[in-house]
Structure formats: C-alpha cells, structure tokens
Amino acid sequence: MDSRFEERLTSVGFTTLTPIQEAVAKPLAEGQSIDALAPTGTGKTLAFTWPLLPEIVPNDGEQLLILAPSQELAMQTTRVVRDWANILSLKVLSLTGGANVKHQLDRLKKHPEILVGTPGRVSELIGNGKLKLKRLRTVILDEADELLRDDTANQIDQIWDTIADEDVQVALFGATEVDKTKASGLFERDFLRIDQRHVEIPTAIKHEFWPTARDQRQKRLRQLATQKHFQAMVFFNTTKQLKITASFLAHEHVAMATLVRGDSSTTRAKSLDNFRKGTAKFLLTTDVAARGLDIPDLPAVINFDLPRDGETYTHRAGRTGRMGKAGLVISFGNDHDQRDLKKLVAVDIKTVTGVKTIVSHKTKALTSSADKAHKGSKTKNTVSDKARKVVNDTKNNDEPTQNTQSKKTVKKAVNTQPTVSRQDRLAKEKHAKRKHRKNKGKPKH
What we know:
Shape: elongated
Protein name: DEAD/DEAH box helicase
EC number: 3.6.4.-
InterPro entries: DEAD/DEAH_box_helicase_dom, DEAD/DEAH_RhlB, DEAD_box_RNA_helicase, Helicase_ATP-bd, Helicase_C-like, P-loop_NTPase, RNA-helicase_DEAD-box_CS
CATH architecture of the largest domain: 3-Layer(aba) Sandwich
Enzyme class: hydrolase
CATH topology of the largest domain: Rossmann fold
GO molecular function: helicase activity; hydrolase activity
Number of helices: 18
C-alpha cells in the first residue's frame, strides 16, 4: 500500500485489512485481470481503490474507468474514490444518467484521470464521440454479475468494442459469481479467480422471520416507526407495491423516503440524503435501485416482499451489518413464505412471535422523546398519538395477566354511571333544540 495511504489509515486508527482487500492488492497492482468475489459489506470499493490509484499518472488523461449498475452506487463509489484520489492530486469525474450532461462534458475537457459511471451514460458519450479512452489502463466492473446481464451487458460490450486492448486490465468485483464463459468471451481473456466468500469474518447479523398476513405488513412498518433510533431499508419486489406502501406511510405521517428507478437523479439523491441523515425512518426501495448501496451503521433491513432467490436475499442482507458491525434482517410473510425462505437461504432464521410485545417495550420512551423533540408540530404529534394508540392496543392484547386488575377497575367505574335510555336522550335533545329556536335572535346578556 502507498505510504501516503498508510499514514492516513494510521491517523484514523485503521489497523486491519479485510480478507478481500488483502487478497487483491498484489494482483491489481501488478496489472492482472481478476474476478474477485467477497460478501457484501467487506470493503470491496477500497479493495480496488488502494492498489490502483498509486499506479495512475497525474495529468495524463483518463486511465481508470469504474462502471456501476446504478446512479446511486456510481455516486457512492465516486465519493469514496475521490476521498483517496485527493491525497494523490488525482481528478475524479462521475458520468451517470439523469445528471447534467453539459456539466459532465465541461469536466471531461479537463481530462480527469478517473471516471466512475453507469454503462448507459458512458456508452452514450462514447457513441457521440465525446469520450475517448485511448489512455485507459484499467476497467473495473463493480457488481459485475448485475452489469453482465441483459441490456446492460450489451452496453458493456459496446464500451469494450471501443477499447478492445489486451493490455488494458479488467477487474470484476461482486458478491455473486458471473458467467465465466460470458466474461471471458466478452473481454477475450482469462480471469484470475479470487474467492473470499467463505472466509470467516466476524459478523453480528441476526435473521428473523415475523409471521405477518399480507394486509398487516404496512401496519407492522407503522409500529416499527415508533422505535427509537430505528431505521431500515425496506425491500419490495415491485414498484407498484412500494408506492402503495409509501402512500399508506405518508397518510400515517411516518417519515420515509423512496428510491425508485425512473425517478430523477435529484429526487433519488435527496431521498438517500434524508435517509443517511436520519430524517427518514425507512428507505423504500427495490433490488435494482439499492444494489451495492452503503448506508453506514444501518440498523436493519426489512423484506416486505420475500426475495425471489437466495442471491437476492444475500445482497439485501448485505446492506446492514457491514464490516462486521451489528445488523438485523427482518422478513415478513405467512407460513408458506417461511417454508420457501428456509429453502432459499442457509442461515439460521429465528421465528419471532408476539412481535407487538417486542415493539411495545421500547415505545413508551420513544413516544415521550418524540413529543419533546417535535413539540408544536402537528404532523409529528399525530405520529406520536398513533404510536401511543398502537402501544395501548398492543398492551391490551399481549399482556392480559398484568392488565386484568386495571380492566376490572375500568369496567366497574363505567357501570357506576347512571344509565340513560335512548328515549330520554332524544327527548333531551328535542328540548334543547326548542330552547335554541325560542332564544334565537334575542340579545345575549
């Protein structure tokens, strides 16, 4: 590792590299083409950043191209790489769809050494003759399994056709395997496989299944929103269900954000920013939109819809518990869903019943703190009022032994009130109306 990087790492107290960071350092620095596999959340971006950046020549044009499957992942990678590139006086430019292309073209004229982009925008710029990669030395495919699928694979093919240089290093990174035949055929080379997926890494991710009827899943989210310091990325299989749930949570005044492919880059960036700052309890998203995202210290991931395969479950779970930190994966579903989930993944999944009790034992403190924090805000107080209602309902349903005496007392108090018949009540209302008509128009004293 470059001594300037080591100095910075030492200054922030970083002492140990992850297995993937150690394994790829030498091959990348030596220019080998590799196929690197490691679990999500193990620092793959830094794994290729640290060895490659010191090999780049400042002010010598575009030398490193990093491709990512989504705008968000490309921007996230840009931030990480730029942080270290600044130490070496290297320029980094992001080329993503949805962003201002004129601004990107103006920046390209300065010939940044490092480009980070999405295949669509990069292939567009190459096709229009605005981007030339004659000095390119390395191509990185981040989340390679996603990039080498369907239409995106065709865009990668178009980009590579303009390069097609056997001396250009190609590195594939991801948590799941790519088709070796497809990768070797496209880039016309063999890749050195570096597989660190089965290396033991300290982890504290808990996996739980919460039996929940489909029409109750939105209410589960509303309950979880009352928990203090709780945030979660919520995954959906369809955009339609995501938007229905977003409407429900908005009606219930639950602070949340959505990340949907098709939204403008500004909207998506704002959603991520609100979630990272903690102003949104939930980030509602789909698998494609959230691929590879890194939310530091994210407490939980929620599978509103169960993933369709084990690979997808792995990528969703990788959003929490990153770099060995604690995390929680919650899956909603019925008995049939539970059986399917056990077939999909090999992890130990605990079935949690009486979920309301789990939610309610923290809610009292949350409600009081929410009232103090948002005093005078009608919207926020509405959330707190609903939270209190959920807690009260929960306690009445889930703690019958403790509340029996109080229930009897309430019932006795109600029975001591005088009973008013329907006939008497109607007569009283009729008398009040007559009195009102009689006094109508008279001056008040």
